């Protein structure tokens, strides 16, 4: 049985002009120790799909699915209390903007220890020791001193490492990384990706990597799902996707890579569209 299994996920938001379907019938699964990449341009429903899994969408969002299970438990029928006990402990998420995801009013140490207190019930001494251990794990120097720092006193890369430390605090079975290298310079991007892959291997987690960067996909993933306008266009193992993409949209994404350019002009996604859209969608 997959660790996470979703069948026909639909997410709708109410707008002034009526309901808007942000995710339209997406199905996916992931096993333990597997790395799954979800790729697509901005607005394709990647983040919304995973926020639905985490139960972090606003109450106004309408979420439905034929099946949504995690570790054999039906996520659609979980009570709010049960979901809160699961999120942050068994499944965790690293959000897009590290500087915006951390609370500026609390120290880094407080925000790490809060997870340990809520989910593991550790006392103050044990929480501090574990927080120091986590900061060491993600490569932050002088962790004892950093515990007392506020997010604005740290760089973007350090804040991203703190977010990873918070996500890993309870040794989750599933880690969702939403654009984990956004807004970081190239050197720090490489360090963060290497850190995530090392920790994933060491802890045996399932890892879902949300990205629009095909280079990240090639470097990290076992399998890939390609999304466009809320629909799944293609799913394949990473080698097959790069060597023999099936959908026009996947070919458009790959052709937009500079190394795949032919002639003087880099192809655009619109070059691959027919009648204003793309043919088909693999569910």
UniProtKB/TrEMBL annotation:
**Protein keywords:** ATP-binding, Cell membrane, Membrane, Nucleotide-binding, Transport
Q: Which lineage ranks, top first, belong to the organism behind this chain? A: Bacteria, Pseudomonadati, Pseudomonadota, Alphaproteobacteria, Hyphomicrobiales
The record's GO molecular-function terms, alphabetically, read: ATP binding; ATP hydrolysis activity
**PANTHER family named in the record:** DIPEPTIDE TRANSPORT ATP-BINDING PROTEIN DPPD (PTHR43297:SF2), OLIGOPEPTIDE TRANSPORT ATP-BINDING PROTEIN APPD (PTHR43297)
Name the major location.
Answer: membrane
Its source organism is Kumtagia ephedrae
What protein does this entry describe? Answer: Nickel import ATP-binding protein NikD
Subcellular localization is given as: Cell inner membrane
DNA damage as UniProt keyword: no
């Amino acid at each position: 049985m997959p660790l996470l299994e979703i069948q026909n996920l639909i997410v709708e938001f109410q707008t002034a002009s009526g309901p808007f379907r942000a995710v339209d019938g997406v199905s996916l699964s992931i096993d333990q120790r597997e790395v799954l990449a979800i790729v697509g341009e901005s607005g394709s429903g990647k983040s919304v799909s995973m926020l639905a899994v985490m139960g972090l969408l606003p109450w106004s969002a309408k979420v439905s699915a034929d099946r949504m299970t995690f570790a054999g438990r039906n996520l659609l029928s979980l009570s709010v209390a049960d979901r809160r006990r699961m999120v942050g402990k068994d499944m965790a998420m690293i959000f897009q903007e590290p500087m915006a995801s951390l609370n500026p009013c609390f120290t880094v140490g407080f925000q790490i220890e809060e997870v340990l207190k809520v989910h593991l019930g550790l006392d103050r001494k044990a929480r501090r020791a574990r927080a120091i251990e986590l900061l060491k794990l993600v490569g932050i120097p002088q962790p004892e001193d950093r515990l007392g720092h506020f997010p604005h006193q740290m760089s973007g890369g350090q804040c991203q490492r703190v977010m990873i430390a918070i996500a890993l605090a309870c040794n989750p079975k599933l880690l969702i990384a939403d654009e984990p290298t956004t807004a970081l310079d190239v050197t720090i991007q490489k360090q963060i990706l290497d850190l995530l892959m090392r920790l994933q291997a060491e802890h045996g987690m399932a890892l879902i990597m949300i990205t629009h960067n095909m280079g990240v996909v090639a470097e990290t993933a076992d399998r890939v799902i390609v999304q466009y306008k809320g629909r799944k266009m293609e799913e394949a193992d990473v080698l097959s996707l790069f060597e023999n993409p099936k959908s026009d949209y996947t070919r458009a994404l790959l052709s937009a890579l500079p190394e795949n350019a032919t002639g003087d002009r880099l192809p655009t996604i619109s070059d691959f569209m027919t009648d204003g859209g793309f043919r088909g969608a693999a569910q």
